[in-house]
Amino acid sequence: MEMRHVTAQGIPYEAWKDNEYIEKLVTELQESGTNVLVGSLDKLINWGRSNSLWPLTFATSCCGIEFVSLGAARFDMARFGWEVARASPRQADFMMVAGTIVHRMVPVFRRLYDQLAEPKYVIACGSCAISGGPFRKSYHVAKGIEDIVPVDVFCPGCPPRPEAMIYSIMQLSRKIKVERFFGGKNRQESQKEFLAAHPIEDVAAANID
Amino acid sequence: MANLQEKVSRLFPEATFEEGEILLVNIPDAKLHDLVKSLRDDCGFDYLVTIVGMDWVSSLGCVYYLTSSLSKEFVSVKVQTTDRDNPMIHSIADLYRIAGIYEREVYDFYGIIFINNPDMRRLFLNIDWVGYPLRKDYDANPEINPVSIENERQTDHTDSWVEQPDGSIKHERPRVFKEDDFVVNIGPQHPATHGVLRFRTAVDGETIQKIDVYMGYIHRGVEKLCEDLGYMQTLHFMDRLDYFSAHNYHHGLCLAIEKAAGIEVPRRAQVIRVMMDELSRIASHCLFIGTFCMDLGATTMLFYTLRVREQVLDIMEKTCGARMTFNYDCLGGVMADLHPDFVKDVKALLEVLPKNVAEYNKLFTGNVIAHNRLKNVGVLSNEDARSWAITGPSGRASGWACDVRKTHPYSVYSEIKFDQVVRTEGDSLARFQNRVDEILQSKGILEQLLEMLPEGEYCAKVPKVIKLPVGHWFQVVEGCRGLFGVYIESDGSAKPYRLKLVTPGLPAAAVVDHITRGQKIADLITIGGSMDYIVPDMDR
Description:
- The complex is a heterodimer.
- Chain A has one domain: Rossmann fold.
- In chain A, α2 runs antiparallel to α6 and α3 packs across α6.
- By secondary structure, chain A is of the alpha/beta class.
- Helix content of chain A is 40%, strand content 7%.
- The relative contact order of chain A is 0.16.
- Chain B is of the alpha+beta class.
- Chain B folds into two domains: 153 residues, Beta Polymerase, domain 2 (2-Layer Sandwich); 318 residues, Cytochrome-c3 Hydrogenase, chain B (Orthogonal Bundle), CATH 1.10.645.10.
- In chain B, β4 and β5 form a beta hairpin.
- The radius of gyration of chain B is 23 Å and the shape is globular.
- The interface between A and B is large, with 53 and 53 residues.
């Protein structure tokens, strides 16, 4: 069977990096098989979702300022339908983790992620979110957010240029296009597996004395 | 300085002195409060710059830096205690309002308890944190303090150690809020707190009664990290504290190290550094105007102000190679020479600046809604500004002429003609207007600098590994938001023994409690925005 060429925002397929990763997802999708009706419905839903991604305004440090630049006239993320930045996690689709996550922030960050409505995605933006970055050796910095929430796209840089951020969100929308919502093992289930492996043991234990 | 030494030694015969660039007074803990009180009341030292916590292994202690807003003179006071298990020093929180917060920071990092401080909680770390991270014997094993996704334990009580009339110390557990206070939580994830800062706000109806500023959501332990790095390597953290004043902070740390190592900076490098400082100031204030107006609901302003900011960033990118974290100032000068287009680009920028500023004023400053929301909101008096250590444009809005470029000129600032922008109203509007005016002030400074830009070397030859002699140094510069200070203590090795960064963000956030009392809760956003704190800057 011919490989489906997944692209986003009209960029030619050959111009993308990491095509192998998307091809792997496509192969997985094709191998698991689905009927024509449900498959087409999936495609329609994915088309809608991948073109109106709403970010959560979440920024802890330097990367957040580049995210502000992304919203302004020069980089203008409104071109791609991402400009509806929401302050409430209940209304947002994805979370751009822009900045360092430190010990005290970890529970708050995890709660924000839990509050995002399904389907939800995470972009680890900048070296601090990916690995702790220049602060990796610090006593109070989490060494990457991968242990706290499942991450969809990594966007390296310190801070990444706004162009890199645009590219990372485009990669995310490409990933959404090869998702499957009906039948089979879908992403929500794999997310549940992750959350089961990283449980919050007792929320009530965080009592007030 | 000799006068001061004479005066102090007459009043406090037990004090010993260390001469240097700044007079250092050694005083036993029992006399500390009296000494600082007499320095404040009789010698005019009305501004506490910082309290540097120290661990000298044989003893723990603090170094207080004080300065006078009249004579501009610095003095430092050193206190030590040899008790490592239960170190105690008397508090000066009743003399300077900001001292309360600084002492909490020292307690957090070194475990030194300040007697009579009414609020001795940890500042940045969780209440269950084991150990005091900046002590030299701190166990950094991540298993002791693991990353936890459990909610952190909260408490309504604080600690206080009060000295009784008979000299004994009594541990008390007062409440942070009154028992029947209605406390609203704002932040840490809130679009108007400009980052991850949390206000626990006690309200009566719509009126704010008290705010407990809860920090540490982006505390990255920069000061401890620096102790493991060479002097060159510490520089890059300066970009990531207040990322708008990256050049200014670099400049400050470079000046401190160069002063200690006796490195001569070529004149061209000095001029370039100051030019970059002023360009950062323009970019920083532009972003402030944009985000501040956005907080008040005028979203469009962000697009107008970011236009100028992008122009500044383009200039920087050509020369420094980055948009935000430049790492441009290095020891002995700057990393690279100016881009050939630099002068042309800056001239083009200076040409459009007045038009842009006029546009901002037309769109926002003169707007009647803006006036209603800003005028007489969050008034900070001159005296309070000094007591709370509010420097920069915010302090100058309260009538305190605290511009370090004028009071303690560094680099080539002494040769440049400019006037401090000072207003006396002390309200949010004055703080806003001060920043708008400073854009034009920076324009004037840049014009003069372009005139005097000399040819020559852009960086002196410095050894790859820099070793400082044994001693300590203190340097202040003007960041975009106020005074930035660097304290370096060296034990003669290639790494700093202690590097303390004094940032304007911490007082600016701490004072929110004071100036919002009695105001409406809707004005909290206005007031917080007008103080223009940067959260990674205060948390470090």
